[in-house]
Amino acid sequence: MRSLNLDSFHDRCMDGLLFCRMAYIFFNQIHDGPDGVKRLRTRPTDTEKKLLEELLPIARFIQLRTRPGLNLQVRWLYGNQSYDAVLRQSGWCVNGGGAPEERILEVTGVYHPNHYLVKEALSAGTPVFGLDGLSRDPLTGEINSIPTVRTNYDFVERFAERVVCGISKKAVKGYTPGSILLVEINLDTPYDDHEWDHLTQFVRQRLCEHTFSEICIFDSLIGRTASFFSDRAEVSEYGQLEPREPSDD
Questions:
Q1: pLDDT per residue over 142-200, tens digit each?
Q2: Longest dimension (CA), the chain
Q3: Would you give the distance in Å from CA 233 to the centre of its chain?
């Protein structure tokens, strides 16, 4: 396959799984290229930012939703429009299951405030104890890291507050009703099952009023996902779980 760039994806309606394959090839292309790991950590240009913050989250969502009876096509747009991609759905989940033919996708990211510092420190070979204890010396510009103490779920709830805040900032922009919000998060430490469950319940209970049909959060560190639907079961968004026989009516 030829070398990929953002133009390889922009305004091209393509099969969802092909989009995923191309996005992962694009990632490997950069990773294996000159200063690849550093580029992916520090995201110096739009190429790395769009790949990590939009293309890969969309690919992850497509993989979550694709199944027999639900085929997806995606058209990603590189620009300043009010959304990031259009998702088109086909198959018996649409024809007989009630799934919508089209959805607007918006992608956002939620990170620890020191996320950029840890990336810079790792690229420079600087030891890091944890994100909470990172700071930059205002005189020398050096990154300092000190150990910090956590108790119970305090660190989970602090991060969950950031997720709620990120969702709220998108909700007030008034997206087209029925749009999907994808929230890519990067946890500051690996969570166990109980900690992830606590985070998702915390977010669910504090969601603000919004017009999204679904808010899907997924973490790029541990690979877990969670979706919050707008007072409707998943079946009404993505069709019946089993094909239905045609009606005689």
A1: 898 888 888 899 999 999 999 999 999 999 998 999 999 999 999 988 899 999 999 99
A2: 78
A3: 21
16-22, long-range: CB within 8 Å, 24+ apart, which pairs?
Answer: 16/62, 16/66, 16/71, 16/72, 16/73, 16/74, 16/87, 17/62, 17/63, 17/66, 17/72, 19/58, 19/59, 19/62, 19/74, 19/76, 20/59, 20/62, 20/63
What gap in Å lies between CA 218 and CA 141, rounded to an integer?
A: 33
Could you tell me which residues come within 8 angstroms of residue 138 by beta carbon, excluding any fewer than 6 positions away? none
Place of tokens 């079946």: 235
Burial call 129-151: b when 16+ CB within 10 Å, e when fewer? ebbbebeeeeeeeebebeeeeee
Q: Please state, as a whole number, how many other Cβ atoms lie within 10 Å of the Cβ of residue 46.
A: 11
**For residue 247, with 0-12 CB atoms within 10 Å meaning exposed, 13-18 middle and 19 or more buried, which class applies?**
exposed
Classify residue 55 by its DSSP letter: I
CB 225 within 8 A of CB 218: yes
- The residue type found at 169 is K
CB atoms within 10 A of CB 245: 6
> Does pTM top 0.90 for this prediction?
no
SS3 label, residue 237: helix
Could you tell me which of 30, 79, 34, 38 has the C-alpha nearest to residue 56?
A: 30
Buried residues in 2-18 as b, exposed as e (16+ CB within 10 A): eebebebbeeeebebbe
Q: Can you read off the two tokens belonging to residue 139?
A: 């005189």
